[in-house]
Design a protein that fits this description.
The structure holds 2 protein chains of 2 kinds.
Chain A (H helix, E strand, L loop, with lengths): L3 E3 L3 E4 L5 E7 L5 E8 L3 E8 L6 E2 L7 E6 L2 E6 L8 E8 L9 E2 L3 E5 L1
Parallel strand pairs in A: 2-11
Antiparallel strand pairs in A: 1-3, 3-8, 4-5, 4-9, 5-6, 7-8, 9-10, 9-11
Chain B lengths: L2 E4 L3 E5 L4 E3 L1 E4 L4 E8 L5 E7 L5 E3 L5 E5 L4 E6 L8 E9 L9 E2 L3 E6 L1
Parallel strand pairs in B: 2-12
Antiparallel strand pairs in B: 1-4, 3-9, 5-6, 5-10, 7-8, 8-9, 10-11, 10-12
Classes of the chains: A mainly beta, B mainly beta.
């Protein structure tokens, strides 16, 4: 079974803090994704990565950056957290061969910025 | 570009009744189609997917969906729901050409509420 884990289920931070959200997958997947989920808006793609040290902007990259130093780990960074970044953050991974079209999701991190 | 419309944001239904959650999409290229389910305080879990072949797709937990190319729809159905089906359901598409990196485009979700 594919397993995608996220470092925290719940996180409370203050405005202006630097925040790191970590995601690890154990299936040797090449692609990894970060989404944010807000009520009534569905999931929106923030960034994705198709290889180590590679990254591409998604639909809403402003205020975020990412890091992928190892294949299994994809980090989302909020350089200076703001209250409008309070949200649920979901990480996903997928392969580039075989079941390449299917994304597997982690349990999510619910971030509250005060 | 692709887009996905889930026509109902909330669907209340009684236990053991049938349910249909509606999904329409727009795309200038062929797509793969998915339904994901999210139980409270959890991540998304794949319910079923359409890649090619038979337009009727069966998934987990007794759900099925039918791809209708002419109506650009991929509605999700279950003949008899349980309380445990209470969750949010997301329809998603991704372009199925070789250069695609598999980015999913999601609908805004439908909250299914099953009442006893």
């Amino acid at each position: 079974d594919v397993k995608v884990t996220q470092s925290s289920r719940y996180l409370v931070k203050r405005t202006g803090e630097k925040v790191f959200l970590e995601c690890v997958q154990d299936m040797d997947h090449e692609n990894m994704f970060w989404y944010r989920q807000d009520p009534g808006l569905g999931l929106r793609l923030i960034y994705f990565s198709y290889d180590v040290k590679m990254k591409e902007k998604g639909d809403i990259p402003e205020g975020y950056s990412v890091s992928r130093e190892k294949k299994e780990r994809f980090s989302l960074i909020l350089e200076s957290a703001s209250t409008n970044q309070t949200s649920m953050y979901l990480c996903a991974s997928s392969a580039v061969a075989g079941e390449r079209e299917t994304q597997y999701f982690g349990p999510g991190t619910r971030l509250l910025v005060l | 570009a692709q887009s996905v419309t889930q026509l109902d944001s909330q669907v209340p239904v009684f236990e053991e009744a049938p349910v249909e959650l509606r999904c329409n999409y727009s795309s200038s290229v062929s797509v793969y189609l998915f339904w994901y389910v999210q139980y409270p305080n959890q991540g998304l879990q794949l319910l079923l997917k359409y890649l090619s072949g038979s337009t009727l797709v069966k998934g987990i937990n007794g759900f099925e969906a039918e791809f209708n190319k002419s109506q650009t729809s991929f509605h999700l159905r279950k003949p008899s729901v349980h309380i445990s089906d209470t969750a949010e359901y997301f329809c998603a598409v991704t372009p199925n050409y070789g250069g695609s990196q598999g980015n999913l485009i999601f609908g805004k979700g439908t909250k299914l509420s099953v009442k006893p």
